[in-house]
Specification:
Elements: H1 12-22, E1 26-27, H2 39-50, H3 63-77, E2 87-90, H4 92-104, E3 110-115, H5 121-127, E4 131-136, E5 138-141, E6 147-151, H6 154-160, E7 165-171, H7 183-193, E8 199-203, H8 223-226, E9 229-234, H9 235-238, E10 247-250, H10 253-266, H11 272-282, H12 286-289, H13 291-306, E11 312-313, E12 321-325, H14 338-349, E13 351-352, E14 354-355, E15 368-372, H15 377-388
Parallel strand pairs: 1-13, 3-4, 3-7, 7-8, 8-9
Antiparallel strand pairs: 2-10, 5-6, 9-10, 11-12, 12-15, 14-15
Bound molecules: glutamine.
Domain Aminotransferase class I/classII large: 25-387
Organism: Polynucleobacter asymbioticus (strain DSM 18221 / CIP 109841 / QLW-P1DMWA-1) (Polynucleobacter necessarius subsp. asymbioticus)
EC number: 2.6.1.-
């Protein structure tokens, strides 16, 4: 039968993790922590299971968890979502993304994405019958030609918007660059969309990983944008439990109603004991409030040691990813395309990374690869030792 996704292979994250395992490489590719989550969180899930919370939960998620999510968003971003009509628990961020897209995009609709873009966006749009319209993130360079900051391509975005634009996907903090949106960016987006019926999917799964005292600017903090946005976040990222696959989507009631029509036949519900455990854990705000410091220490350690290598570092204001330019390394492999370079780095040097070209549809080579620093210091130190040998 004709493939629904003829141009799609296996996601790069799975490919690189498999290659890393095969070659016993240190896996700084796929984004996940190599350290344990809090035992108290596991204890809470355990208690929930022993208390027989093991049957289907409500389709939209258990009340305690939705109430906790509403409180968190209210505390951090001063927007009140009604937990009953505006918040839905999902099986991770990626399911939230697909379900949002399936619920509002159809044949003939256009969806704007900003590349480099997370690899699930485009196939999800195509499955819905929509068309992905990619614009590229711009970079500002310093006098040495190094990337100093990222700039949202406002002109290209303005040109891309037309009456067929059903949805625009934004992602802050941004995977893979770590770029974060500022308040002025949200203002500009709101004015760009003012007289349109374009909706926004805001992927904020790295919301608690913003550094140097900066603030995360959520669409929830912007009333005009909140009124047309699906906000997505992930407990896997926040609580170091990527394998649990629990996240949420918050959106105005009219959007949530459409979202839930699809969600109920997509996953129906999300596992019950994890929801109870997370609901109880979420009430202790310190866990997410401490996350920026926790990850900044890792980022700073990783960056300080990377300075001793020939890799040129790109700025990392957010996320747990560090992008590096390898083209100035004094080795023949510095001329390889990104995917080949990552393969070589994994199999011959023993450190797995993700080629940034995987975040583009059209062949794009910028000589940049992504490392994940959500690792124990000893893991980072061993990887750095190998990188410093280049
Ligand atoms: N978001 C994670 C990353 O960019 C991986 C998620 C996945 O593997 N699907 O590494």
């Amino acid at each position: 039968f004709p493939s629904r996704l003829p141009n799609v292979g296996t996601t790069i994250f799975t490919v690189m993790s498999a290659l890393a395992a095969e070659h016993q490489a240190i896996n700084l590719g796929q984004g996940f922590p190599d350290f344990p989550c809090d035992r108290n969180l596991i204890g809470k899930v355990n208690e929930a299971m022993l208390a027989d919370h093991n049957q289907y939960p409500p389709m939209i998620g258990i009340g305690d968890l939705r109430n906790g999510i509403a409180k968190k968003i209210g505390d951090l971003y001063q927007h009140h979502y009604d937990p009953d009509t505006e918040i839905t628990v999902t099986a991770g961020g990626t399911q939230g993304i697909l379900t949002v897209i399936l619920s509002c995009v159809g044949p003939g609709d256009e969806v704007i994405i900003i590349e480099p873009a997370y690899d699930s966006y485009r196939p999800s749009i195509e499955l819905a019958g929509g068309k992905a319209i990619a614009v590229s993130l711009e970079t500002m360079r310093d006098q040495n030609g190094q990337v100093a900051s990222y700039v949202i391509p406002w002109e290209a975005l303005t040109k891309a918007i037309n009456p067929k634009t059903r949805l625009m996907i934004i992602n802050t903090p941004h995977n893979p660059t770590g770029m974060v949106w500022q308040k002025a960016d949200l203002d500009r987006l709101a004015s760009l969309l003012k007289n349109t019926s374009t909706l926004v999917l805001s992927d904020e799964v790295y919301e608690h990983m913003v550094y140097d005292g900066a603030k995360h600017h959520s669409v929830a903090s912007h009333p005009e944008l909140a009124a047309r946005s699906f906000l997505i976040s992930s407990f896997g990222k926040t609580y170091h439990v990527t394998g649990w696959k629990v996240g949420y989507v918050a959106a105005p009631a009219s959007l949530t109603a459409e979202f839930r029509k699809v969600h109920q036949f997509n996953v129906f519900t999300v596992n019950t004991p994890m929801q109870y455990g997370l609901a109880s854990y979420l009430s202790e705000a310190a866990h997410y409030l401490n996350l920026p410091d926790f990850y900044q220490a890792k980022r700073d350690f990783f960056r300080a040691e990377l300075e001793k290598t020939g890799f040129k570092q790109l700025p990392t204001p957010g996320t747990y990813f560090q992008c590096v330019d390898y083209t100035a390394l004094n080795i023949p492999e510095a001329k390889l395309p990104e995917a080949e370079f990552c393969k070589w780095l994994t199999t011959e040097v023993g450190v797995a990374a993700i080629p940034v070209s995987a975040f583009y549809q059209k062949p794009t080579e910028s000589g940049v690869v992504r490392f994940c620093f959500a690792k124990q210091e000893k893991t980072l130190a061993s990887a750095l030792q190998r990188l410093q040998s280049l």
